[in-house]
Amino acid sequence: MLETPEEYYARIAAATDEDGRLPVAVEEMPGWDIYPYEVDSLRIKPLQPLGEEEPDRRGERAEDCWCADPGSRGSHGGVAWHNERWRVVLSSETRVPVFLILEPLAHHDYGDLTDELAGEMGRLLVALAAAIEELPSVGRAHQYRIGDGGAHLHLMFFGRPRRILQFRGSPLLDWEENLPLVPQEVHRANAAYVGERLVERVGGSGPDWT
């Protein structure tokens, strides 16, 4: 039998202390040398009750999503690359060398992409990672999909700074929130390079900062 949410939650709750707190798992991520926080001062928040249902994400219905009115999407810093089906936008601000978001123009999430879009997405993922890792200030390309924000598929690419070895791995997201902002002109130059490399590799059109 497949496990229910209640069964999963009960197992987690059984591991908490009298205040409803889970122990810090020092043998896991908090114990890594790349983890950004000191373990002795960490405390996990008390476990909250199981929710009644999953909340809607932004744009759950296509008519309510930004893609119904593309001009309403104001939270990015410009389009680094696009074709008839996809675009790559840069975050309006970042604290790593480049922060790009790949998204389909039509309203889709992962689970309902057509075979054609899924195949094209695979090519774009490869081309984006390769171009980002050509930037002099980038050591590795990190790619994230966190499914709880917007219902419209958006795949995030971070350029992990080269030779800052504490920033390796999944803790990069925690480090990024605490770093100084990258100047917009630097971010746009990096994004423009990536966009131009995508044009060379997969076609489409390059940067448009208007």
In short:
GO terms for molecular function: hydrolase activity. InterPro entries: HIT-like_sf. The protein has 210 residues and is of the alpha+beta class.
Question: What structural keywords apply?
Answer:
16% strand; HIT family, subunit A; 210 residues; single chain; 2 domains; 4 helices
What does this protein structure show overall?
This protein has 210 residues and is α+β, with helices and mostly antiparallel strands. It has two domains: 1-53, no CATH class; 76-202, HIT-like (HIT family, subunit A, 2-Layer Sandwich), CATH 3.30.428.10. The chain is 24% helix and 16% strand. It has four helices and five strands, in the order αβββαββαα. The protein has a five-stranded antiparallel β-sheet. β2 (86-91) and β3 (99-104) form a beta hairpin. α2 crosses α4. It is globular and about 60 Å long. The model has no long low-confidence stretch (mean pLDDT 93). Keywords: Hydrolase. InterPro entries: HIT-like_sf. One of its GO terms (molecular function) is hydrolase activity.
Layout of secondary structure:
Elements: H1 5-13, E1 76-82, E2 86-91, E3 99-104, H2 115-132, E4 138-144, E5 155-161, H3 172-176, H4 184-202
Antiparallel strand pairs: 1-2, 2-3, 3-5, 4-5
Mean pLDDT: 93
- Proper CATH architecture of the largest domain: 2-Layer Sandwich
Uncertain ranges: none
Largest beta sheet: strand ordering: 1-2-3-5-4
The CATH C-level name of the largest domain is: Alpha Beta
- The class by helix and strand makeup works out as alpha+beta
> How far apart are the first and last residues' alpha carbons, in Å?
54 Å
